[in-house]
Design brief:
By secondary structure, the chain is mainly α. The chain is 30% helix and 7% strand.
Length: 109
């Protein structure tokens, strides 16, 4: 199997066409990893991105996404700095109530 590096702006709707041109197959189940990403971009863009992933993914594909729950913003245990989450909190665009997870992902396919 050959690894192909593709640089794309996932905020732009055309990113998926670049992926397909580089050989992505809609016929093979895919495991998507969006770690450390979705809470840094606007919620509407995340919804669009997830919808697009569902559109181009074969049934049986899976996705890994880490989400942020507002009460989870506590300093990292290995940090000596009580403000260790200051940068994160300042740059975070949105968070998700844990009870809203099924509904949120259900709307995107």
């Amino acid at each position: 199997m050959q690894n192909i590096c593709l640089s794309a702006d996932l905020v732009e709707p055309k990113w998926s066409s670049h992926l397909i041109k580089k050989g992505f197959s809609k016929d093979i189940p895919t495991f998507w990893v969006l770690e450390g990403l979705i809470y840094y971009i606007e919620r509407e863009v995340v919804l669009s991105l997830l919808t697009k992933l569902a559109e181009i993914s074969k049934i049986g594909s899976q996705i890994f996404i880490d989400i942020i729950h507002a009460s989870g913003r506590v300093p990292l245990p290995y940090s000596q700095n009580e403000n260790s989450t200051e940068f994160f909190s300042k740059n975070q665009k949105w968070d998700l109530n844990i009870k809203g997870v099924p509904e949120f992902f259900g709307t995107t396919g």
